């Protein structure tokens, strides 16, 4: 299963990097003569309303999402790990405050605060990335915190205190290496969700703008033709789905490996 | 004579690890008659629990029986189908595990849990089953049995829980009762209570008993015959009292020589650890499995594997040279590290230490008004049961827990309690060795990294000077250089504890607080660590505060001893004086509770009544009055006892004057429990009269 997931993920990463080479057509080339052509020999997955090759656009569409999702995840891991370490190690008031904020953020479906934030700061891929990072950081923080709670009362931490080591040293050099595996697992799971959230936000046209071949955006733009040319919508939707499933399968395999 | 209740013949059991099947039990044969108790001893990893699980056919998924037969009542369990097996287990086999709390279902009342056995295996109706449950509890002498039926497991003490588990095991009148470390997680006084119960039950039931323990003293006391296991084989088998008096296998002899015998001290005895380590399951050893660690080993041992043969009536030994065991040469100690009397220079003084943990109501007083002092280079032993406040006291001293009040003086200077306020010099002078070898080292770091960090922080050494000091530390604790670049997780418990001791001593501290430093270790490793601590004390001049629930260990190492009960110190004095008496009634009971070797000549033991009271609601007056066998009357309930001097700084907190205590204790023959009272200097014989050992499962 891990292998299947990894293959799917690798395929999309390859597409994102090398779509210029792989794609049979220029994904931006408009062909007014063949709008909404059904799948066939010349266009394997047909064309969209402007006559652009759907297959090429789906391949190229992997690029934006595979930039946004991992970057956002890394940012949220960095922020969330720091928050989780501080909350878990210091406990008390710091912990209570941080965790109540986390509760508040988690009580809403991610899409609602994201929509609000993007409406305020403006639509752009960078803002989508930052919004996802900010939304996911509390979730990461919670995972890290619970891992830290299990470690902080271990005797090696006491030994570090007896050396007079400061709390920053203890948090980052003594505890962090021992909570790395939950952080890594959380990270891979989060990438899947980030792909999904980025897709949703571009579907709502809050992020990247046309003519980008981004999957979420394409689904939004082409959904008017779903009755007469379903391939224009189905292809990017399936692409998104396979990427998310692929990432989750890989994450699952990784978690099992780390758990052993 | 009919067939034995349990007969195991040529049993071989393997576990699969990383795709390979490795034998954990190989070719074990033994037989237990009805009404007989058979003890199985050995260090962790020797295969004793696996043997028990195979007899129950409870092996985990990755385990399988390769060969052999397990016959109970003539039927071979090894070849029995799942359905038959279930019925057979319920009616003929029963097992009591180490941890009673996890053997009971926390969501069910005790009565329902016991009644279940009668309902499923006897088909009894609910009311009848509950009545039987009540009878079962009375049979295990549960006080107030009918009330206990309606309680939940968490409302019972550890000792009571184990009683319930035993009651359930006996409910079906099993042919075979397996007890796997039945008292290991319990306090000494509770352990004594449970052992008394098992001893009493043996006279009432005719079940065969298989008792598994790492504690030689316990097995010797409880069993008729004993088998010693090593690396999956039984290496020696014989009648309990004879075997430990004259072992016929070098491993049995080695085990006895590395145990601190009850009453032995560092002045008169040297512990001899067994060299080397237990082989991993699956390691192929040509010839005798024990030969790599055996002093008697010669070419024949490396070539031919010995058989388990009768060497005298009722005794079997797996050794080519069993007749030489009695004269087995002693190991020569590396150095002779026997510190003389400590110089009388005060290192640490604590007065009026108090610590309350906040909680419901008034909170829990964990340490109440403790005053003590430690001299330079001496060892102060602290004993007491779980919840007595030993660990909290230790953590307060080193600055990990901040007490509510009290004064601390270190090396003549007033010192702050908070670790953060102490400054590097003071931190360096006071270090701690922790209990749990699994968590004491950071699993992500190498040993070199851990020691290097300590050396850098304490001594400011870097680069080559740092590596030199690290190498010096490692050789000081006998840690071979090849272990330095391994991570903590790749080391065995004993090696980890060595590294932890090296870390504590990195900055040449004046005081090391050792909190149960050998509790989680096997006896042979324990001996090595104890000798190491002594040796380092002689070379480095470090003072120890040694916390342990194992009285033999404390007696062996300590110059002075403090006894704690329910957050208070109740007795303190020179080790010899405390063991010789007069003693606080609690100390007396603690000493009497230790399972010793020759119970036939020992006086009837003292047993404490009732459970250990809750710290949140301590008894009024003398805190020990609820369990004290020498309670005077109302005065004990109303007034806190004063500190009375029994001579030469030996203080006892009791209303009974020391002279009267001495008379009471001598009259009952309890003075020093026959170990040290009338014999101030027990002979340094390798075979003293009392054997005891400590082991895992200590108070937190």
Provide the descriptors you would attach to this structure in a database record.
heterodimer, A: 260 residues, mainly alpha, MetI-like fold, 10 helices, 73% helix, 0% strand, elongated, B: 700 residues, alpha/beta, Rossmann fold, 4 domains, 8-stranded mixed sheet, 23 helices, 24 strands, globular, disordered C terminus
Uncertain runs of chain A: none
Assign the structural class of chain B, choosing from mainly alpha, mainly beta, alpha/beta, alpha+beta, or little secondary structure.
Answer: alpha/beta
Give the overall shape of chain B, derived from the CA principal axes: globular
CATH homologous superfamily heading of the largest domain in chain B: P-loop containing nucleotide triphosphate hydrolases
CATH class of the largest domain in chain B: Alpha Beta
Separation, N- and C-terminal Cα atoms of chain A: 17 Å
Strand content of chain B: 15-25%
Say which CATH homologous superfamily of chain A is assigned: MetI-like
Family (chain B): Belongs to the ABC transporter superfamily.
Organism (chain B): Candidatus Segetimicrobium genomatis
Domain ABC transporter (chain B): 6-256, 348-591
GO biological process, one term (chain B): peptide transport
């Amino acid at each position: 299963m891990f292998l299947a997931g990894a293959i799917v993920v690798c395929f999309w990463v390859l597409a994102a990097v090398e779509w210029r080479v792989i794609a049979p057509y220029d994904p931006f080339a408009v062909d007014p003569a063949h709008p909404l052509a059904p799948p066939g020999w010349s266009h394997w997955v047909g064309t969209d309303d402007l006559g652009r090759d759907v297959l090429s656009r789906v391949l190229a569409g992997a690029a934006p999402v595979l930039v946004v999702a991992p970057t956002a995840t890394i940012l949220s891991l960095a922020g969330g790990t720091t928050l989780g370490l501080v909350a878990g190690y210091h406990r008390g008031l710091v912990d209570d405050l941080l965790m109540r904020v986390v509760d508040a953020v988690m009580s809403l479906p991610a899409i609602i605060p994201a929509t609000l934030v993007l409406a305020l700061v403006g639509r752009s891929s960078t803002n989508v990335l930052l919004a996802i990072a900010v939304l996911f950081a509390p979730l990461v923080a919670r995972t890290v915190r619970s891992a830290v709670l299990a470690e902080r009362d271990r005797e090696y931490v006491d030994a570090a205190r007896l050396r007079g080591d400061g709390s920053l040293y203890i948090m980052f050099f003594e505890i962090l290496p021992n909570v790395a595996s939950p952080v890594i697992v959380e990270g891979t799971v989060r990438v899947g969700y980030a792909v999904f959230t980025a897709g949703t936000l571009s579907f709502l046209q809050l992020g990247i703008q046309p003519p980008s071949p981004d999957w979420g955006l394409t689904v939004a733009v082409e959904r008017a033709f779903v009755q007469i040319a379903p391939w224009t919508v189905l292809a990017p939707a399936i692409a998104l789905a396979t990427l998310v499933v692929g990432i989750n399968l890989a994450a699952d395999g990784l978690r099992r490996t780390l758990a052993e | 004579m009919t067939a034995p209740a349990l007969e195991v013949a040529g049993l071989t059991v393997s576990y699969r690890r990383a795709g390979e099947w490795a034998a954990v039990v190989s070719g074990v044969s033994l037989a237990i008659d009805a009404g007989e108790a058979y003890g199985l001893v050995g260090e962790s990893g020797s295969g004793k629990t696996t043997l028990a699980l195979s007899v129950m056919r409870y092996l985990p998924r990755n385990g399988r029986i390769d060969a052999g037969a397990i016959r109970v009542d003539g039927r071979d369990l090894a070849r029995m189908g799942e359905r038959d097996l279930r019925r057979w287990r319920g009616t003929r086999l029963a097992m009591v595990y180490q941890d009673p709390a996890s053997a009971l279902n926390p969501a069910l009342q005790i009565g329902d849990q016991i009644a279940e056995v009668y309902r499923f295996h006897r088909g009894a109706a609910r009311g009848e089953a509950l009545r039987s449950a009540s009878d079962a509890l009375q049979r295990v002498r549960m006080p107030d049995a009918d009330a206990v039926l309606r309680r939940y497991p968490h409302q019972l003490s550890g000792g009571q829980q184990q009683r319930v588990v035993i009651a359930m095991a006996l409910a079906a009148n099993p042919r075979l009762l397996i007890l796997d470390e039945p008292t290991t997680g319990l306090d000494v006084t509770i352990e004594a209570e449970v052992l008394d119960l098992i001893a009493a039950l043996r006279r009432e039931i005719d079940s065969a008993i298989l008792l598994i323990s790492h504690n030689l003293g316990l097995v010797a006391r409880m069993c008729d015959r004993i088998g010693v296991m090593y690396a999956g084989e039984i290496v020696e088998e014989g009648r309990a009292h004879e075997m430990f008096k004259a072992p016929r296998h070098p491993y049995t002899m080695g085990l006895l020589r590395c145990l601190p015998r009850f009453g032995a001290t560092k002045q008169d005895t040297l512990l001899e650890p067994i060299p080397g380590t237990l082989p991993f399951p699956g390691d192929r050893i040509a010839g005798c499995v024990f030969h790599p660690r055996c002093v008697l080993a010669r070419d024949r041992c490396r070539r031919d594997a010995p058989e388990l043969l009768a060497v005298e009536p009722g005794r079997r030994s797996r050794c080519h040279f069993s007749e030489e065991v009695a004269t087995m040469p002693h190991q020569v100690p590396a150095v002779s590290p026997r510190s003389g009397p400590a110089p009388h220079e005060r290192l640490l003084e604590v007065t009026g230490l108090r610590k309350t943990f906040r909680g419901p109501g008034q909170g829990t007083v964990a340490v109440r008004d403790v005053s003590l002092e430690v001299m330079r280079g001496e060892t102060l032993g602290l004993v007491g049961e779980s919840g007595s406040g030993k660990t909290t006291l230790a953590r307060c001293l080193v600055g990990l827990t901040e007490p509510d009040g009290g004064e601390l003086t270190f090396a003549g200077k007033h010192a702050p309690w908070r670790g953060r306020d102490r400054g590097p010099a003071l931190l360096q002078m006071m270090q701690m060795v922790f209990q749990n070898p699994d968590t004491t080292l950071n699993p992500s770091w190498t040993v070199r990294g851990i020691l290097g960090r300590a050396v850098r922080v304490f001594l400011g050494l870097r680069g080559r000077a740092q590596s030199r000091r690290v190498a010096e530390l490692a050789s000081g604790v006998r840690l071979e250089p090849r272990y330095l670049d391994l991570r903590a997780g790749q080391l065995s418990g004993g090696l980890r504890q060595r590294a932890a001791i090296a870390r504590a001593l990195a900055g040449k501290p004046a005081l090391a607080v050792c909190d149960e430093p050998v509790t989680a270790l096997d006896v042979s490793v324990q001996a090595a660590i104890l000798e190491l601590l002594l040796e380092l004390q002689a070379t480095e001049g470090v003072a120890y505060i040694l916390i342990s629930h194992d009285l033999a260990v404390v007696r062996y190492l300590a110059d002075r001893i403090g006894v704690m009960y329910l957050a208070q110190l109740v007795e303190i004095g020179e080790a010899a004086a405390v063991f010789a008496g007069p003693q606080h009634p609690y100390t007396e009971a603690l000493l009497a509770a230790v399972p010793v070797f020759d119970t036939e000549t020992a006086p009837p033991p003292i047993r404490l009544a009732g459970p250990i009271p809750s710290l949140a609601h301590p008894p009024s007056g003398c805190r020990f009055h609820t369990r004290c066998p020498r309670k005077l009357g109302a005065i004990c309930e109303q007034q806190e006892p004063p500190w009375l001097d029994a001579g030469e700084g030996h203080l006892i907190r009791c209303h009974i004057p020391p002279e009267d205590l001495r008379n009471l204790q001598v009259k009952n023959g309890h003075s020093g429990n026959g170990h040290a009272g009338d014999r101030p200097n027990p002979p340094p014989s390798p075979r003293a009269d009392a054997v005891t050992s400590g082991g895992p499962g200590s108070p937190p």
